[in-house]
């Protein structure tokens, strides 16, 4: 920087300083500015305070308006409740429901003040499939409903108890009383629930007080509506749907039911003793101390988490004065034969409930076998605290011993047919298929001489059939199998899937059950042994293949059945094969043939002396063979 540059900067600085000095405000001007700033600050604070005051005033005004609106709305809602519910308008005021618990060793009930009903029923000794912690709930929350419909004194209103709030009036270890009071609290309706120790049956008493001034004076009965959704409790939905149905008993003891495979409804004018909402292993049963009258029932198939939904509208006696309570009972428990049967102990005639009919035991003769043989035997072995698989094994052994004479008779007949096979082959060679009647006549004559009946092998099997069918009905409904494991099966009451493929195959489903597969394999082996034992016409190859097709059909039929039943048939077939092998080892074909030849000679001697009906029967048979031959010859001539 040179001299001129420094001189320039100094002059500029002098000008700036001089200008600032001469342009500064005076003391009067500074005082006036300070005064003006103070006035502006005060005005700004006053504006802020006014804005705040206006906001508070507006809030108070809005709150007052809202309170006024709420009060008007509340008055309007109260007026509407008064118009709709009359003397029960206070009980219709919205409020959170309370719960009272009533329980014993086996059953836990949650009673809700909303409607004074049972809101949840839990069975302490059972668990739902897939839940090993919580007790099984037959229903909970909105899955069940029960209400009474009552008419007002002037018939202008219908009171629905499920819309009204009860109060917990009295509570003990075994009893809870729910009370529905009028606005004056001088008239009320009580619903009293009583649960005895170690019992699945809860008693329900409905009793009014002073209601003759509140309800229609001609009231002698009340309409009762009872509905329930049945959740899926088991792994095998197909079987649960098959056994879930609405079943009821008329007052005269007749049992009726709605369809389990489709939506169904029924209007019953006859008096009904009880109505049961049945699942595969559990039931909710409503029982009238007197009877249900003019009843409408409905059963609907459900999807997803529910199996069925049931609905009943009926009428029960109702005493306005409260002198005679309306008595009901509700069974909430397992479909266990002995438990249900115990409710009829010490009773006779029409006093019996016959709740054991909720357990399906098959046709008349089959159920008779189950009641006097299968169930007592099962209870005996089960009382030994054995694994349930061993119990079924012991039952199978006992049943096999009982039917052993019939099995031996069937094998004996098959052995005779096998020994006669060479002679039957000779008859088949002598008479070609075109002379079928002559072939059959000659074969029957051979059987008669040898003392063999083709039906002798079938009749013993027919005696075994009722026993086999008894087990077929008993094991799928035996709740004792539920949740019990054996070998690889974690639950013998449902299928034991060894393979699952996540999609549905027609007839087979989405899995393959191992016990069913083993049963099918053993059945094929048993069929092969029988085919070797029997003398079958070589021209009946189709029948031979049909014999092998039957076991394969069982694979598709029993794949969805419970593992306990497939296990029983598997063990039963193994024992039958062992018996057959023992019979074969102990049977001498030569001695058996000699015995039949001896019988043939005796039969020939008897035939010479035979007269009367048998002689005429044989003569008719000979005439039929003769006519067949003549017809065959005539047909051959016409063809020429």
Description of the molecule:
- The chain is an alpha+beta fold.
- It has three domains: 97-360, Beta-galactosidase, Chain A, domain 5, CATH 2.70.98.90; 367-596, no CATH class; 613-640.
- The chain has helices at 3-23, 27-85, 237-243, 337-341, 364-382, 388-402, 404-419, 421-430, 436-450, 458-477, 514-533, 541-558, 563-586, 589-609, 612-639, and strands spanning 99-103, 107-112, 117-123, 136-140, 144-151, 158-160, 167-171, 175-181, 188-195, 201-209, 221-231, 245-250, 255-257, 264-268, 272-278, 282-301, 306-317, 326-334, 497-505, 509-513.
- The strands form three sheets. Strands 5, 6, 7, 8, 9, 10, 11, 12, 13, 14, 15, 16, 17 and 18 form a 14-stranded antiparallel β-sheet that branches. Strands 1-2-3-4 form a four-stranded antiparallel β-sheet, with no helix packed on it. A two-stranded antiparallel ribbon has the order 19-20.
- It is elongated.
- It starts with a helix and ends with a helix.
- The model has no long low-confidence stretch (mean pLDDT 83).
Characteristic key phrases:
Beta-galactosidase, Chain A, domain 5, 14-stranded antiparallel β-sheet, 640 residues
């Amino acid at each position: 920087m040179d001299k001129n540059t420094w001189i320039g900067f100094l002059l500029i600085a002098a000008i700036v300083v001089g200008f600032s000095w001469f342009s500064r405000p005076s003391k009067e001007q500074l005082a006036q500015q300070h005064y003006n700033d103070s006035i502006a600050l005060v005005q700004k604070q006053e504006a802020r305070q006014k804005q705040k005051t206006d906001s508070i005033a507006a809030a108070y005004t809005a709150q007052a308006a809202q309170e006024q609106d709420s009060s008007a709305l509340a008055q309007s809602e109260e007026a509407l409740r008064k118009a709709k519910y009359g003397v029960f308008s206070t009980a219709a005021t919205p409020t959170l429901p309370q719960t009272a618990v009533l329980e014993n060793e086996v059953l836990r009930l949650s009673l809700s003040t909303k409607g004074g009903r049972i809101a949840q029923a839990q069975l302490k000794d059972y668990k739902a499939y897939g839940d090993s912690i919580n007790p099984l709930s037959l229903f909970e929350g909105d899955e069940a409903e029960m209400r009474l419909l009552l008419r007002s004194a002037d018939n202008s209103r219908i009171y629905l108890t499920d819309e009204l709030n009860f109060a917990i009036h009295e509570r003990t270890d075994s009893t809870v009383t729910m009370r529905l009071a009028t606005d004056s609290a001088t008239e009320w309706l009580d619903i009293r629930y009583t649960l005895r120790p170690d019992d699945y049956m809860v008693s329900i008493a409905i009793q009014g007080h002073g209601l003759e001034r509140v309800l229609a004076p001609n009231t002698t009965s009340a309409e009762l509506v009872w509905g329930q959704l049945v959740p899926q409790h088991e792994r095998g939905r197909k079987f649960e749907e098959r056994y879930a149905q609405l079943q009821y008993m008329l007052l005269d003891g007749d049992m009726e039911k709605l369809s389990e495979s489709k939506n169904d409804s029924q209007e019953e004018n006859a008096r009904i003793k009880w109505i049961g909402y049945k699942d595969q292993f559990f039931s909710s049963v409503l029982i009238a101390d007197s009877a249900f009258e003019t009843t409408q029932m409905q059963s609907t198939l459900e999807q997803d988490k529910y199996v069925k939904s049931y609905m009943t509208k009926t009428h029960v006696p109702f005493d306005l004065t409260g002198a005679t309570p309306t008595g009901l009972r509700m069974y909430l428990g397992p479909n266990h034969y002995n438990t249900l049967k115990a409710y009829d102990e010490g009773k006779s005639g029409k006093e019996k409930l016959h709740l054991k009919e909720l357990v399906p035991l098959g046709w008349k003769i089959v159920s008779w076998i189950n009641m006097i043989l299968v169930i007592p035997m099962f209870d005996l072995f089960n009382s030994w605290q054995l694994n349930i698989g061993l119990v079924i094994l012991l039952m199978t052994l006992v049943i096999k011993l009982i039917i052993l004479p019939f099995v031996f008779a069937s094998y004996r007949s098959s052995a005779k047919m096998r020994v006669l096979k060479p002679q039957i082959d000779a008859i088949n060679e002598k008479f070609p298929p075109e002379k079928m009647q002559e072939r059959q006549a000659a074969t029957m004559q051979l059987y008669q001489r040898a003392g063999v009946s083709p039906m002798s092998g079938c009749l013993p099997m027919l005696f075994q059939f009722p026993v086999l069918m008894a087990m077929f009905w008993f094991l799928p409904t035996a709740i004792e199998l539920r949740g019990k494991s054996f070998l690889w099966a974690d639950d013998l009451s449902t299928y034991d899937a060894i393979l699952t493929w996540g999609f549905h195959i027609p007839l087979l489903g989405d899995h393959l059950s191992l016990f069913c597969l083993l049963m099918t394999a053993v059945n094929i082996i048993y069929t092969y042994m029988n085919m070797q034992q029997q003398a079958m016409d070589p021209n009946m190859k189709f029948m031979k293949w049909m014999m092998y097709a039957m076991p394969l059909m069982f694979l598709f039929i029993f794949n969805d059945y419970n593992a306990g039943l497939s296990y029983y048939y598997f063990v039963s077939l193994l024992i039958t094969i062992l018996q057959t092998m023992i019979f074969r080892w102990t049977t001498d074909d030569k001695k058996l043939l000699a015995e039949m030849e001896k019988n043939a000679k005796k039969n020939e001697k008897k035939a010479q002396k035979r007269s009367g009906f048998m002689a005429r029967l044989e003569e008719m048979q000979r005439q039929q063979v003769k006519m067949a031959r003549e017809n065959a010859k005539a047909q051959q001539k016409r063809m020429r």
